[in-house]
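Reopening this one. Same input as before:
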Amino acid sequence: MGKQRGSVYEPGRRSGAWIKLKCVNEQEFVIGGYTPPAGSRKYFGAILVGYYEGSRKERGSRNETDSRLLFAGKVGSGFTAKSLAMLYKKFQTEAREDCPFADLPSKHDGQWVQGITPSMMRKMHWVNPVFVAQIKFAEWTRDGKLRQPVFLVLREDKDPSQVTREG
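Same output, byte for byte:
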């Protein structure tokens, strides 16, 4: 809530002296797959995103990594018809058979995380983790997933291996 100094609450009236502020977070995530389309949506339903966790070390002249790609959530909003088509086309060039996330499928408090059961895993489409998406979201949930994520843009300038969890 944002309030003008010295203002008082005015019941039943919106004076503009008090305004509701919505705080959002934003960061990059690696795309590791997508869900099939549902309803009238074309191409795909949601992208499956994550981040790298683990250590990076230098060995000789090349980077070695012990990091794992961890699942952060499904992002199904923020797409235009144009962005759906563009992303789908890119995904086809990096298709793979297996899930790139180290922690899927998994359970939290006896429930499958984000409703992704082992049988649902077979319906997902997986891509090599080479694409980075800028995502805005309300917050991290207690089980480490994104709440109310929205796709903003594909980040062609970011190295996927450098994407880690912020905050």
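So the earlier flakiness isn't reproducible anymore. For the record, Confidence is low (pLDDT under 50) at residues 57-62.
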